[in-house]
Design a protein that fits this description.
By secondary structure, the protein is of the alpha/beta class. Helix content is 42%, strand content 16%. An eight-stranded parallel sheet has the order 7-6-5-4-3-2-1-8. 38% of the residues are buried.
């Protein structure tokens, strides 16, 4: 993908977000994450050469490791997010390169990440992923146990819970998606009310549903197919 097309796509997304914010009377920032997991290295380099200050997101640990290494000499201080299912034997790569791990979906994985963060002398920023669609193929904590989960992970000294993440159901029924996003928004608000506002990130919404996510409180959207695409 060429630089001009990437810039045009970015401007379209930014304009859409501004329109959505006006539509729902939202006055806080909506952070855009550029999902690079389907993009070629050449497309990512074109994106980075535009100096658009957005994090990149990968979903496979080895891809994160390889791309972070390959691009380190191309551009300094690239911010990386990890958004995929986490295998315990690949955590060392994820912790080494991730500024934010969005997909922490079990206590066991949180413990492994915490141990690896200790080895790296690092406080690892994370999001807790909840399974709002109740689909087995999707990762995520059970939403009914969110207080116990939050408290358990909060006690891990080298983890810092920055917020929550979820993936909506792939369906044409808007009411189902809205209901799912509102569930996570309610959990987000309840944790902040109970524990003196520790959370700042509510990561919901992708290319197909980010308007609905923003409508229901999301302040971080993960955009792949309509941004850096499949190239």
């Amino acid at each position: 993908m060429y630089k001009d097309e990437i810039l045009n796509r970015y401007n379209t997304i930014k304009n859409n977000v501004d329109i959505i914010k006006q539509k729902y009377n939202i006055n806080y920032d909506i952070n855009i994450i550029a999902v690079s997991k389907y993009s070629s290295l050449e497309t990512i380099k074109e994106f980075l050469s535009l100096n658009i200050d957005l994090p990149l997101a990968e979903s496979k640990a080895q891809s994160l490791r390889d791309r972070a290494g390959e691009l380190a000499s191309f551009k300094d201080n690239i911010k990386w997010h990890f958004i995929g299912r986490i295998q315990s034997n690949k955590v060392k790569y994820i912790v080494k390169y991730s500024d934010l791990i969005q997909s922490v979906d079990s206590i066991d994985i949180a413990e492994v990440i915490n141990k690896e963060a200790v080895k790296n002398n690092k406080i690892q920023d994370i999001l807790l992923q909840f399974n709002i669609s109740d689909e087995e193929q999707k990762g995520g904590f059970d939403i009914d146990s969110y207080i116990k989960i939050y408290e358990s992970v909060s006690n891990m000294n080298n983890l810092s819970i920055k917020g929550l993440m979820a993936i909506g159901k792939d369906t044409d029924d808007i009411s189902i998606i809205e209901n799912e996003f509102e569930k996570l928004n309610s959990i987000y608000k309840d944790i902040n009310a109970k524990y003196n506002n520790p959370l700042s990130i509510l990561s919901m919404g992708m290319s197909s549903d980010y308007e609905l996510a923003i409508k229901h409180g999301s302040n971080m959207i993960r955009i792949g197919s309509s941004f850096l695409g499949y190239s």
